[in-house]
Amino acid sequence: MTVLRIRDFEIHSGYFAPDAQAKLVADLRDCLGQAPLVQPVTSRGAPMSVRMSAAGTYGWISDRKGYRYERQHPSGVPWPPIPSALLEMWQALVPGARAPECCLINWYDDAAKMGMHQDKHEADLSQPVVSVSLGDEGLFRMGNETRGGRTESVWLRSGDVVVMAGSARRAYHGIDRIRPNSSTLLPKGGRINLTLRVVT
Ligand code: MD3
Ligand code: FE
Fold first, then answer.
1. How far is the CA of 131 from the centre of ligand 2 (A)?
2. Of 3, 32, 38, 93, whose Cβ has the fewest other Cβ atoms within 10 Å?
3. Is residue 97 within 6 Å of ligand 1 at its C-beta?
4. Would you say 19 and 164 are in contact if contact means Cβ atoms under 8 Å apart?
5. Helix, strand, coil shares of the chain as percentages rounded to 5?
6. Average pLDDT over residues 69-96
7. CB under 8 Å to 195, separation ≥6 — which residues?
8. What's the rounded Cα separation, in Å, for the pair 113 and 65?
9. How remote is the CA of residue 121 from the centroid of ligand 2, in Å?
10. For the chain, how many structural domains are there in total?
11. Are 199 and 104 spatial neighbours (Cβ–Cβ below 8 Å)?
């Protein structure tokens, strides 16, 4: 395990060992059995390339009505609880923070990407966000608190954890591309990204 700091982004490469990654995938399979992945659309009706679900008190939803946090999956069921290994990781890495209220689950196929954006619809931006990458590698781009300017990119590999605190919490960021077949963790390939957030 090594820690790389790029500005206020703290990258813990190899935080989860392969056996812990496999256990997380099994936990997520249970979560997704209760709250299946959905392909969100933007308020203008454009499908996003990433498929999403969530665990915890709140999940993030985007549909024709716009985007927001909701207490239920679109099917009407409550989100499943956040797997305990993730809560333990949060406690270990950001012990002073409030408890996470959402674990967003993003699934990327070979062609999926996520454009540069900020996450600022949570009420308390002093709270950190912690992300976990599983499966195929993804090229993570880190920007600035305002759009544009210099960016830095890093390949996130299966088991890596990124802590976004301080200025990184408000920074633009995105995933430019996935490296297909770069991991054998997920039988059907692809990349899973989990982000733990405080919402209220
Ligand atoms: C910086 N996810 O879910 S993880 C997202 O890999 C998101 O799926 C990407 O951007 C992914 O919103 C990037 C790193 C990340 C996640 C959330 C952040 C960086 C962040 C929130 C605020 C600032
Ligand atoms: Fe984001």
1. 9
2. 3
3. no
4. no
5. 15, 40, 45
6. 98
7. 102, 103, 104, 106, 119, 129, 130, 131, 132
8. 23
9. 11
10. 1
11. no
Cβ(195)–Cβ(54) under 8 Å?
no
pLDDT in tens, 3-21: 999 999 999 999 999 999 9
Q: What per-residue confidence (pLDDT) applies to 12?
A: 98
Tens of pLDDT, residues 155-200: 999 999 999 999 999 999 999 999 999 999 999 999 999 999 999 9
Give residue 61's identity as a one-letter amino acid code.
I
Residue 103 Cβ contacting ligand 1 at under 6 Å: no
Distance separating the N- and C-terminal Cα atoms of the chain: 32
Distance of CA 97 to the CA centre of its chain: 18
In this prediction, residues 76-91 reach a mean pLDDT of 98
CATH assignment of the domain containing 168: 2.60.120.590
pTM value > 0.90 = yes
51 Cβ below 6 A of ligand 1: no
What domain range is 27 assigned to? 2-197
- Ligand 1 and 178: CB distance under 6 A: no
